[in-house]
Write a structure and sequence with these properties.
Helix content is 34%, strand content 21%. By secondary structure, it is α/β, with parallel strands linked by helices. A 7-stranded mixed sheet has the order 6-5-4-7-8-11-10. The chain has a 4-stranded antiparallel sheet with strand order 1-2-3-9.
């Protein structure tokens, strides 16, 4: 089976199966944690496998038919509005980092611009800013605020504006895409020679917060790929880019790492507020041992933040 599967990053065979998650588990996690029904994505897919690209180490969920649709994102957005938590990100570490790199007057493209938070923050620096956003409702709101927003794929946009931008960035979008090779190729196509490509994604080393395999929004249908530093370091082998910098969203506490490590050891899938008494007892027995390892890893600088941002230059 693996010999027939194409790596979404290389476009070639050469992958191996590393893990799997049942559709039943995913459905229950979304229902319990978010109150969202995702069962329609798994009617013909009882098990979602995780494959790893042999050439790059990129891991992806398979099959691709479990990817999200417009209704799913509409539900997430409405839930965020109801909870006053929002869905689109603003004033994040990666936004601040990229703002520090952009020079006055440079042409900037933000792929997946959401509510336009990054573009609005960029206005004092440059007026030559453009966004791509496939959520028509959100895109229309941004246009009413005077932002140039296209509701089209990067593949279409790059055909219209090849070698046009000084900076192309995409914040927390790439993990939602299955055909990542096509996405990256066209993001690079839209850049001038020497232009900068900046991408940020959840840091999966190997999973979110290292041990959280069952992190709901890191699973299909929301996410389709698992990125980390090592995968990004391999991208210059495939694309005409040079890696210039890698940063993380700080680091996290050893106690959080110890909790998720104990949860993984105990085989617990439920959210923290839904642990059964038996699950709590198993995790409690394991926590002293996981704490020792987590304190050690904290001292060794291994507890990198839950988000990673990378900066490339086009050759």
């Amino acid at each position: 089976m693996a010999s027939e599967i194409i790596s979404p990053l290389t476009g070639k065979p050469g992958v191996k199966k590393t893990d799997s998650i049942t559709g039943k588990d995913i459905i229950q996690l979304y229902r319990h944690q978010l109150g969202i029904d995702v069962s329609r994505f798994f009617t013909t897919t009882p098990v979602v496998d995780i494959y790893e690209c042999n050439e790059t180490g990129y891991r992806f969920y398979y099959p691709p038919n479990v990817i999200s649709d417009g209704k799913f994102y509409e539900e997430l957005q409405k839930k965020g509005e109801a909870d006053n938590t929002g869905y689109y990100r603003t004033n994040q570490f990666d936004h601040e980092y990229v703002l520090s790199l952009i020079k006055p007057g440079e042409k900037v493209l933000d792929i997946g611009s959401g509510g336009g938070g990054f573009l609005k923050a960029l206005l004092p620096t440059s007026k030559n800013i453009t966004g791509i956003e496939l959520n028509n409702y959100t895109a229309d709101l941004c246009r009413k605020e005077g932002l140039e927003i296209f509701d089209e794929l990067i593949e279409v946009h790059a055909q219209k504006r090849p070698a046009y931008y000084d900076v192309v960035c995409s914040f927390q979008v790439l993990e939602h895409v299955y055909d990542v090779k096509n996405f990256i190729e066209n993001a690079i196509k839209a850049l001038k020679p020497g232009g900068r490509l900046i991408l940020s994604v959840p840091n999966n080393d190997p999973y979110f917060l290292r041990h959280s395999k069952y992190e709901t929004l890191n699973l299909p249908p929301h996410h389709m790929g698992l990125w980390n530093k090592e995968v990004f370091q391999n991208l210059p082998k495939l694309f005409s880019i040079v890696l210039k910098d890698v940063i993380y969203s700080g680091s996290y506490r050893w106690l959080i790492d110890a909790y998720y490590r104990a949860k993984r050891w105990a085989g617990v899938k439920t959210f923290i507020h839904h642990h059964s008494l038996g699950e709590k007892i198993r995790m409690g027995l394991l926590l002293p041992f996981s704490s020792v390892l987590s304190i050690r890893d904290k001292m060794w600088g291994k507890l990198n933040g839950g988000q990673i941002c990378v900066y490339f230059e086009k050759k």
